[in-house]
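Reading a protein record of the kind used here takes little practice once its layout is understood. The fold follows as a row of integers, each naming the local backbone shape at the matching residue. With these conventions in mind, the following record can be read line by line:

_____
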Amino acid sequence: MKDQIHREITPLKENDCFLIFDRERNAFTFPIHFHPEFEINYISNARGGKRIVGDHIEEINERELVMVGPNLYHGWENYKNDSNELLHEITIQFPRELFDENTLNRNMLKPIRELLNNANRGILFSKETTKMVEAKLIALSQKRGFDSYLAFQSLLYDLAISREQKLLTNMSFHRQSDFHNSERIETIYKYIQENYQQKIKLEDAASLVNMSSISFSRLIKQRTGKSFVEFVIEIRLGYATRLLIESNKSIAEICFECGFNNISNFNRIFKKKQACTPTDFRLNFNGIKNVL
């Protein structure tokens, strides 16, 4: 399956700050692809279309705004969208190098630093945010020179401070940690990554950071919004969905390789998270890749 995922060579040149495309088309023509640049995608007149970002597959509404990080799989297909209206798409691509670490560590840029970090999992912005920045996006596509750069920075900040951002992929799917600013959670995250195939006990994880089980459980809940068991399951699911996409291994092989104790339990947990079975997920992903 991985061989059919395209690596896109974007038209960004070495000295470009960003590129913006504003276009209308009759149908979605986005195969599953990835590239080393960040990307912001605004799409309207698209109700019934289907979006895939990493291991997340979802039918989309009339309009949506999504941001994806470097090398994260993404693509769209028509699915149930049979509107006679032209699809309107505005795409912005910009390189990681546009913001260096020293710049992002400035207090004023903390929201943008968190936005870029969250984009590694894919971000779906709320309807309210999409409506709020719609005019800015359209205006940005018509600006040139330094004015366009200032407008772009303003757009990023609006997105960074917006509410109700939805992260799309499982936390382990993109193989990067979201917890670099929490040493204890980072330690636990790495421990789970190294041992997700084995049985992982809360007591062992707590002792790793010299905490009681109760205090440790409270820390995990506060920092991740999940219980420790839910945290471990989400990491395992991230590895499982990546194997479903990138390998031809059987469902049973993937189940046990990712630390689930039996196939029925794996299917139940997977369906609860993805709203489909592992088999259906693989078929859905494979079907989307044929849109060209």
